[in-house]
Every structure is written in structure tokens, then in C-alpha cells.
Amino acid sequence: MHENSIWVEKYRPKTFDEIKGQRHIIPRIKAFVEKKNMPHLLLCGPPGSGKSTSAFVIANELYGKNKEDFLDLNASDSRGIDVIRMQVKDFARTKSIKDVPFKIIHLDESDALTKEAQQALRRTMENYSRTCRFILSANFPSKIIDPIKSRCSIFRFKPLDKESLYEYIDYITSNEGLILKDGVKSRLVEMGEGDVRQTVNLLQSCSSVSKEIDLEILKEVSGIIENIDIKEILELAIGGGFLNAKKRLLDIMLENGLSGIDTVKQIQKSIYELNISDDEKLKLIEKCGEIEYRLVEGANDFIQIEALLAGFGLVKK
Would you say residue 255 lies in a domain? Predict the structure, then answer.
């Protein structure tokens, strides 16, 4: 929760009826809660799709305002085995004295736990299943060991659909007294890519500039390069103007404070608009994947972006 803006917390749903999207999942989770008989849950899906929110709604529905029987931990901050052996185990071993027959431990970003910590967690889930239930949130379920998966009911969240995001944006703008000019709402949804948190953070940042938000303010706040600018730079690189293309792109990165990862993602989207053969597009997309991997592993942003542009210059040779 440490990465959330004020608005993300302010407009976080408190009940199942307030959750937008995920209609294929929420009724099933709600049924568990109504019966007060819930298995361990593994909530997996992309960032900002409602996994953590669902965990907090479950706690609200079961315990109300008194959250003594609900423990929320971010596993990416506490990745080691000691946290599982001490903090989690100590909480799980004591029985709830309220109407609900179990406590709940929410491990957010549980895919960040080390393998040793996951093995310890497996035993804790097994030994204290009568007194405690676990809700594990993960962006990458493949990083969760199979013994934990087999102990959980797995729910796969999808990125929010456009209609749900439009509804959410309308709700916030009406409450905050914002006016969105033509094209802003659709651009917000496009930039959010189904991530509610990212969409709300962008909207809040824009509102700090003006209550009337237009595309220029959105562009300034987000630092996103227009596709037409990227396309021109790529065409310049392909046409043999590597040095000019490099200068223009690096200038844009510095002016807008863009990281290498952000730049590669925008370049990849612009490849489809280039007037080159499909085979050449495939080679460039493959090159983008290679450069992104290098950046994730810690390579220098500017050197890798130059290498990517060099790859574009070689596509016709």
C-alpha cells in the first residue's frame, strides 16, 4: 500500500458491490464470505486489477471496523524466512475470539517471497488452517511454489475493461469537481492499460495542475511521448539517420524524465505503424524484447536505447 496515492486509498471500494469489473470472480468470493467458511485464497493477475482491494473488502465484510484479526503484510518488503517463522506464525497460531472462526493474513506481492520463505509458509498454512486463513496476492503466480498453490483456491484477475474504468473515472471526477476535456477520458483509459491504480494516480496528478484537464495537461503530467514523434524518430533511424534519431530520442527522454523501460514500451507500440514488411517488424519487436530484458537486469538506459536504434538502422541491410 505504500505506493498508493491519496485518491487510491480514498476511493478504494469498501464492499463487494463497489468493486468495478471482475464479475467472473467477485460473486464466488462473496459467497465464501457470507458463509464465513473460506479456504486459503491465491489472487493473481496484473497490477491494479483489484487483488489487494478484494482482500481488504473481505476483511471489511467479516470484521467491520475492528481489524484485530486481519494482518496485512507486503511480502516484497518482508521476503525472508524469519518473517514467516515469527510474525506470521505468531499471528496465525492464536484463535479469533469473535464471531468469525478464523483470522486472515494478507500477503501482498507474495511472488516476491524467497523459496525458503514459501516452504515455511506452506507448513504454517497447513498447521494453522483451523485458526487462520491466508490471502496471497501475486502478479506472477508462476513464482509461487506448487505446494502453496494446491492449498489455495485460485482466482485469476483480468485488467479492468474500458467500461469499468470509464465508470470509475466518472465517479471520481464528479466527487472531485473535475472537468475532463474532449479525448482526455479515453486517453486516460488507454494509458492506464487496465491498471486502476495507474489511472487514478494520473488523474490525481492532473488535478493538481488544473480542475479543467485537457490533453496537453495529461501529456505534460504523464511524460508520454506522442506516437507520431516516436514514429518519425524510428523512420529516421531506419532511413539511415541514426545520429539524428539518437539525438532526438535522447533529448525527449531527458526532457520528459523517461526511463529506458518506458521508452522501449512506447517504441514497441509504434513499430506496428511503420511502413516496413511484417518480417522486419518481427525482427524489431524481438529486438525490443531483448533490450527490455537487459534494462530489467540493470543495463544503462541510454546505451541500450542507442543499441535499439542501431538495430532499427540495420533492419534494411
Answer: yes
Q: What angle do CA 276, 278, 280 make, to 5 degrees?
A: 65
Q: Report whether 74 contacts 2 (CB < 8 A).
A: yes
Task: Work out how many domains the chain is built from and give that number.
Answer: 3
* 193: containing domain: 168-222
For residue 44, the model assigns a pLDDT of: 93
Cα–Cα distance, 266 to 47 (Å, whole number): 19
Is 96 in the same domain as 193?
no
d(CA 315, CA 281): 9
From 191, 228, 195, select the one nearest 206 (Cα to Cα): 191
Same domain, 70 and 146: yes
pLDDT in tens, 237-258: 888 888 999 998 888 888 777 7
0.90 surpassed by pTM: no
Rounded to whole angstroms, the Cα distance separating 118 from 125 reads: 10
- Examine the domain organization and report whether 78 and 21 are in the same domain: yes
